[in-house]
Amino acid sequence: MILKKLIVGIFLLFVLNGCVQNTAFLGPAYTFATSGSVYQAGLSYGSDKAVMKVTGKSTGENIKEMLVVKEKDSEFQKLVKKRIKETRKKLNLPNQ
């Protein structure tokens, strides 16, 4: 059973390898579909690419890094980060 899953996983990895580049357009395409605004979709795509170029990380990775409690954080920052973690637990969103 494990061997079968491994073979299927490797097969799908090779078959779907070309789809990875197209997922960069998924966010702006969704923005365009919901809002109908080409300008808003273009701004979404352009800002994401600018953040990626400047920081080397996606916007999601940057947000995840900001939510980690650090020693130099003020008490207010620590409280906000703690509340966000508690809210995620209540909403059952541990991976976001």
Question: Could you characterize what this model shows?
Answer:
- With 96 residues, the protein is mainly alpha-helical.
- The chain has 5 helices and no strands.
- It has 2 domains: 23-56; 63-96.
- Helix content is 70%, strand content 0%.
- The longest helix is centred in the middle third of the chain and has 18 residues, at 38-55.
- 1% of the residues are buried.
Strand content: under 5%
The number of strands is 0
How many independent structural domains?
2
What's the end-to-end separation, in Å?
Answer: 31 Å
Q: Roughly how much helix do the residues carry, as a percent range?
A: 55-70%
Q: What would you report as the Rg, rounded to the nearest angstrom?
A: 19 Å
Main pleated sheet: none
Poorly predicted tracts of residues: none
- Number of helical regions: 5
Question: What are the SSEs and their pairings?
Answer:
Blueprint: H1 2-15, H2 26-35, H3 38-55, H4 59-66, H5 75-91
Helix pairs in contact: 2-3
Keywords:
extended; 5 helices; single chain; 96 residues; 2 domains
Gist of the model:
This protein has 2 domains: 23-56; 63-96. Helices cover 70% and strands 0% of the residues.
